[in-house]
UniProtKB/TrEMBL annotation:
Enzyme Commission no: 2.1.2.2
HAMAP family (UniProt xref): PurN
Listed pathway(s): Purine metabolism; IMP biosynthesis via de novo pathway; N(2)-formyl-N(1)-(5-phospho-D-ribosyl)glycinamide from N(1)-(5-phospho-D-ribosyl)glycinamide (10-formyl THF route): step 1/1
Reactions catalysed according to its record: N(1)-(5-phospho-beta-D-ribosyl)glycinamide + (6R)-10-formyltetrahydrofolate = N(2)-formyl-N(1)-(5-phospho-beta-D-ribosyl)glycinamide + (6S)-5,6,7,8-tetrahydrofolate + H(+)
Keywords for the protein's UniProt record, in alphabetical order: Purine biosynthesis, Transferase
Entry similarity comment: Belongs to the GART family.
Active site positions: 108
Protein's name according to its UniProt entry: Phosphoribosylglycinamide formyltransferase
Record-listed (6R)-10-formyltetrahydrofolate binding positions: 64, 106
Origin species: Funiculus sociatus GB2-A5
Domain of life: Bacteria
Length: 200
């Protein structure tokens, strides 16, 4: 399966997917990393893995649609079949969604539908819930609302900070993102709409 990954910052989820491929847990290739912030650590990780990294800086485009059009062209140029949004911090438009219908997945640091949008980890911490987690879902134009593929639950401990909680969530993200891609791959090749059991 030919993957394109989109990331805005750190890129630890990009690396988790690359690592799953290297460990042969996932039969796929990352064709390209698209990133939007110059100097993003994700780009350095891509270089380390030998994956081409393309900077598409949203500040250089007049609209979200123009950026997404360039993203689509780049993904097509690299023959991408499935798109993985791994910490892509831009709202996507119909332009991208229509080019890869039901072929874009996102990882979000909460148990959706709770805590959509940015600051999901902080929202969970401030709300006082005792369990949060992460979700891999299909992308639609409505933010953090597409079909849920896989989730993992993570406890919130009494003395958690934003950092300690996010670190605990990311350990699970790095497991369920490659697993969800494998599930998508099976349904892609078998043409089944396979339903997915929850992780925990
Ligand atoms: C992750 O927590 C993901 O859920 C959110 O952005 C973060 C990206 O982390 N969408 P990284 O850049 O992969 O380390």
């Amino acid at each position: 399966l030919k993957l394109g990954v989109m990331a805005s910052g750190n890129g630890s989820n990009f690396e988790a997917v690359a690592e799953a491929i290297a460990q042969q847990q996932l039969n796929a290739q990352i064709q390209v990393l698209i990133y939007n912030n110059p100097g993003a650590k994700a780009a350095a990780r891509a270089e380390k893995c030998g994956v081409p990294a393309v900077l598409l800086n949203h500040r250089d485009f007049n609209s979200r649609e123009e950026l997404d059009q360039k993203i689509v062209e780049t993904l097509q140029q690299y023959q991408v079949e499935w798109v993985i949004m791994a910490g892509w911090m831009r709202v996507v438009t119909q332009v991208l969604v229509d080019a890869f219908p039901d072929r874009i997945i996102n990882i979000h640091p909460s148990l959706l539908p709770s805590f959509k949008g940015i600051n999901a980890v902080e929202q969970a911490l401030n709300t006082g819930v005792k369990i949060t987690g992460c979700t891999v879902h299909l992308v639609s134009v409505e933010v953090d609302s597409g079909k849920i593929l896989l989730q993992a639950a993570v406890p919130i401990l009494p003395d958690d900070t934003l950092e300690t909680l996010h670190t605990r969530i990311q350990i699970q993200e790095h497991k369920i993102l490659p697993q969800a891609i494998a599930i998508c791959q099976r349904s892609h090749f078998l043409g089944t709409g396979e339903e997915v059991a929850s992780q925990c």
